[in-house]
Structures are given as structure tokens and as C-alpha cells.
Amino acid sequence: MVELRPLSHADLHAVRGWRNAARESLRTPFLLTPAMQDRFAAEVVDNPQAPHRYFGIWGTSSTCTGGTTAQRFVGMGGLTYIRWEDRIAEISLIVNPPETAKGFGWDAAGALLDEAFGRMCLLTICGEAYYCNPSGVTFWQKFCQEYGGEMARLPRRKWWDGRLHDSLYFTLTYEAWLSRRTA
User: Over the stretch 73-116, which tens digit does the pLDDT of each residue have?
Assistant: First the structure.
């Protein structure tokens, strides 16, 4: 189970470390410095005029005895490059590596769709995952299958580790989300 919350500057600096360690999955593979992350916070995260909305992802997990543990910061998600006139945005998601494969990414992606379609009145969410990050591609393929997304393989989209890699480009729509939410 996850909750979307505002990001603190401490959260953003934790994400900087995760991001710098997983550059194969990112559009911009350069390392971020603390100053660059602070600039991102000021110009994007803290700026209501920016065409991006980022959230801290706070997760709660169950124990084997059925109890729950305290909520903790497990990732960052966003709706980026929002084009209000077209009601479209890209989805962005990064999860703390020790927290992967626990369902937080899945729940966070669902919460981001709830935010996009349910509160922001967007109609289309798209995204891209690079084949040099097979777990990311698999995640989004499964997510799109669950939520009625359309997918396409795009050739030669990411230079990583000495060669070009293809990407999975996907689109999720309000109508498909709504039909699965009410089913």
C-alpha cells in the first residue's frame, strides 16, 4: 500500500543517490550533483507553474503475522511534461532498490494514474522504458496489460554501455483505466 505525499529536500537527495546508481533506466544518464538536485527542487518540484508534478511515495507493508509496519519513503513518482491543452502527461517512477519487488512500484503507478485521471482530469498517460533495463520493461508490460495500455517497441532509443537499445513505449488512457476501476 502506498500514499503519495509532497517531496522534501531530504527525500530528493535520497532519490539522487538511487537515480545515480540506475542510469541505464533514465532518459538523461548523467550523474546529478547535490547542487543540480537543489536546482531541480527549486525550478520543478517547488514550482507550481512547472509542467511537472512529482510526489514522494510512502509505503506500508504487512508483516507475516498480519500487522503493518510504519510508513517509510520508498520512491518518487511524477506526471511530467504535462500538456494541459492536450490532457496528456508522461509517467515517471523510481523506487529505492531495496524496496523493489515488494509491490510499491505497482501501487505507486496505480496511485499516479488515480492522480492523473481522477484529480488532474488528464486523458492520456504515456511512458518509456529501455530494454537495457529488463526489469523496468517487464514491469511496464505487465502494468499495461493489467490496465489496458497500448505498447510499441521503438528501435535505437537509448545509448548505454556501448550500444543502442530499443525501448518499450506505452500509453494508458482514461477510458481503459475507468473500465478496469469499475469492473
Answer: 999 999 999 999 999 999 999 999 999 999 999 999 999 999 99
Between CA 73 and CA 92 the distance in angstroms is 16
What's the CA gap between 9 and 128, in Å, rounded?
Answer: 26
* Parallel, antiparallel or unpaired: strands 124-130 and 88-95: parallel
Strands 88-95 and 150-160: unpaired
Residue 166 CB-half CA count within 13 A = 9
C-alpha cell belonging to residue 65 = 503475522
CA atoms within 13 A on the CB side of 47: 12
Q: Which residues of the chain have pLDDT under 70?
A: 62-68, 183
Instruction: Measure the CA–CA gap between 170 and 14, rounded to whole angstroms.
Output: 28
